[in-house]
Amino acid sequence: MTFIDLLGTVFAENREPALFSMVVWALWTRWNHLRAGENTGTLDHLLQQARDRLRDFLHHNTARIQPVGHPPTSWQPPGPSQYKINVDGVLFMSNSSAGLGVVIRNEHGQVMVSLSKRTPLPSIVIEVEALAARRGLELAVEMGFKNIVLESDSQVLITALWDNSYSLASFGHMVKDIQFIAYQLSSISYTHVRRQCNTLTRSLARRAKSVSQFQVWIKEVPPNSSSILRADIFGLL
Length: 237
What we know:
The chain folds into two domains: 1-60, no CATH class; 66-234, 2-Layer Sandwich (Nucleotidyltransferase, domain 5). Helices cover 43% and strands 19% of the residues. The chain has helices at 3-12, 17-35, 46-60, 125-143, 155-163, 172-182, 199-207, 226-234; strands at residues 83-92, 97-105, 111-120, 147-152, 187-192, 214-218.
């Protein structure tokens, strides 16, 4: 049995997938420490450490969804010491591809990193939104951000992430990927917003049509998105 087979069995048969994710992450971390010549604990204690970390994670973290009837009308910053990831996806039917847009900002509205990525056209529209969310969380992990608010204008995606209704969804495997990555964070919440609150990431997603694979900007956005960023900041004043 390959690791992919094992992973599929764990999730399909609901064999404590959250604990399994913690164990895999603990093994991966231990391996990296060993490669770096750092001190690590014994394997005898790894399972209990994974259980303790999962218990702490579940105690301190709950996924929250913005009430559907009262979403904000402009972009809002995250709480203190948090980073907000806004994500969006668009379809390019003419060349059978899709664009993903991601921007991560801090509590002051400052851009930490932004991304445009082109990807093959998924089979259904919601998969584009899920791909953008997954890439946004991956980027947060790569940058070392641990306290996250993931925000999207896709109510279907946010609801699936919020109430664990992904198991029977056609894009369920992508939701599982997102939640697997989320286990690597210290805290995460999910919020739904109106599309006008997500215009910056939409511009980044549209920009992906002109890139070969992806582009990343550190602490800035591309020039053609600067006016949208300024509008978001002005809306906070």
